[in-house]
Amino acid sequence: MEKRQELFAGKAKSVYATDDPDRLILHFRNDTSAFDGRRVESLERKGRVNNRFNAFIMGKLQEAGIPTHFESLLSDTECVVKNLEMIPVECVVRNIAAGSLVKTLGVEEGQELTPPTFQLFLKNDALHDPMINESLAETFGWATPDQLAEMKALTFRVNEVLKALFAEGGMLLVDYKLEFGLFHGQIVLGDEFSPDGCRLWDAETREKLDKDRFRQGLGNVIESYEEVGRRIGVDFG
């Protein structure tokens, strides 16, 4: 497969075209950002760790029958993915109160949410990813009702699979975000799943093992990502 021009560079990943119009190359960089890009640093090993972590998780989801864009690892920091028509709506499930939910509603961090909450956010950095609902998504053409229903169902299916996986490693899946796209008309999970886009706590100590370590200046960010991976069986090479 021939790697061609860069199509897009996000906060932590870059996307490249290939000689196959249905396939892209996703490059995980060492860049780490927080607070809408106001804080940016480069963390050694991050690209490799997140690339391999994501490959492992996508494999587990595919085994459970969840369609994803992931196809294969290409190198320590790159993988081959399907070329999706991305839907600009993020799906967020929260199993435990943390982050913006605590700040917005004034609830106590660590409160178990039964049932888990489901939220939609418009993927728009300039607007700081505002929360939206199904009606807004339909009205403005961001997604159809059928697409939203499928995205919600898949997001909760991911929750079932990954809550159990992380529990086996002695961890709590606090919350996470997912992005979806269309591949020849089918709703498919896109983007990535890594400690950058979810919250993971040690089940006993409630120690934070995710990107909150970067946001809150707790240190040992990549070491924590690697610890999470080791607990669930990720091979970092």
UniProtKB/TrEMBL annotation:
A single GO BP term for this record reads: 'de novo' IMP biosynthetic process
SUPFAM superfamilies in the record:
SAICAR synthase-like
> Where is each SAICAR synthetase/ADE2 N-terminal domain found?
7-231
Catalysed reaction(s) here are: 5-amino-1-(5-phospho-D-ribosyl)imidazole-4-carboxylate + L-aspartate + ATP = (2S)-2-[5-amino-1-(5-phospho-beta-D-ribosyl)imidazole-4-carboxamido]succinate + ADP + phosphate + 2 H(+)
Domain of life where this protein originates? Bacteria
Gene Ontology, cellular component aspect: cytosol
Keyword field: ATP-binding, Ligase, Nucleotide-binding, Purine biosynthesis
Q: What is its EC number?
A: 6.3.2.6
A molecular function (GO) held by this record is: phosphoribosylaminoimidazolesuccinocarboxamide synthase activity
What start and end residues bound the annotated signal peptide?
none
Enzyme group, top EC level?
ligase
Q: Which Pfam families match?
A: SAICAR_synt
Q: Does the keyword Transmembrane helix apply?
A: no
What pathway annotation does it carry? Purine metabolism; IMP biosynthesis via de novo pathway; 5-amino-1-(5-phospho-D-ribosyl)imidazole-4-carboxamide from 5-amino-1-(5-phospho-D-ribosyl)imidazole-4-carboxylate: step 1/2
The text of the family note is: Belongs to the SAICAR synthetase family.
- Specify the protein name: Phosphoribosylaminoimidazole-succinocarboxamide synthase
